[in-house]
Amino acid sequence: MNAIKFLWAAYIATWVIHGLYIGSVARRYSRLRQRMKELRK
Amino acid sequence: MKRAFPILAVLTALLLTYSTYQALVVAPTERTMGDVQRIFYYHVPSAWTAFCLFFVNLIASLTYLLRKSSKADALAVAAAEVGVVFCTIVLITGPIWARPVWGIWWTWDLRLTLTLVLWLIYVSYLVLRRFSDSSQTPKLAAVLAIFGALDVPLVYFSIWFFRTQHPQPVIGNGGSLDPRMLHAFLINLFAFSCFGAMVCWWRYRLELLHREVEEMESLESLRGVTQ
Questions:
Q1: Contact B58/B223 with Cβ under 8 angstroms?
Q2: Could you tell me which of B87, B75, B158 has the C-alpha nearest to residue B121?
């Protein structure tokens, strides 16, 4: 049983999903901050 | 509180690094499943964190229904979204573990099916929040959240009350775990809970900012109409 490749697949999947989600929150956050600055001008 | 966020984020990142080291290096290899058992250190804490976030969503939804609090509604959205991310990880790491151990990726076992239903309920919740503009949307979503939360105990207790293929709990209920495995598991449980709380907090702040921007935009457009 080549278990190690399944372990790495699960590990990579976990952190890729978290990374993508955190990236999406960061992008949305910076876009809204920018919009807020524009509205306050 | 805003100033504490970067410090807490760094501490959470350090805790996650330590918990990963514990899971991949320190915890002993399980005798029958081998290294694939280490998925347990991600899978179970992810499920736990998703359940906690869905519970936060339930409390926030009930608060919204009772008090019409906009902040409670924002917290409900944040907790549901982050909960769905953790639940997605549960639904992905589970089959990756099942393939070498059971020989199949998926089976329509009660716990697996109920977890998929739970994920679908909260995805519907997020779709409703994203695409409905009605003023009744927060109320409808809060009611949907209550139905979603009812599925959480069903998922948890399904392996206790029904014969399922999913492994039985190894902590409590007569099960036993090597102390080093238990240590790695508890560290991961704590690290994932902190990580979930941090991401939910950040998403909550994003939701508040989004509402503030929307409010300012509608004021701006009103000003444009009156001029």
A1: no
A2: B87
Residue A1 three-state SS: coil
Give the pLDDT confidence of A13-38 residue by residue, as tens digits.
Answer: 999 999 999 999 999 999 999 999 99
Q: Between A and B, how many residue pairs show a Cβ–Cβ distance under 8 A?
A: 79
| Contact flag A6-B36 (C-beta cutoff 8 Å) | yes
In terms of Cα–Cα distance, which of B61, B119, B65, B82 is closest to B201? Answer: B82
Amino acid identity for residue B58 in this structure: L
Task: Judge: A18–B85 Cβ closer than 8 Å, yes or no.
Answer: yes
ipTM over 0.85: yes
- Nearest Cα residue in chain B from A1: B100
pLDDT in tens, B99-157: 998 899 998 988 999 999 999 999 999 999 999 888 899 999 999 999 999 999 998 88
Angle at which helix B110-131 crosses helix B40-67, to 10 degrees, equals 50
Both tokens of B154, joined, read: 């069903």
pLDDT at B165 over 80: no
Contact B97 A33 (CB under 8 A): no
* Residue at B60: amino acid letter: A
Give the pTM: 0.92
Asked if the C-beta of B222 comes within 8 angstroms of chain A's C-beta atoms, the answer is: no
Contact residues, chain A, for B99 at CB < 8 Å: 6
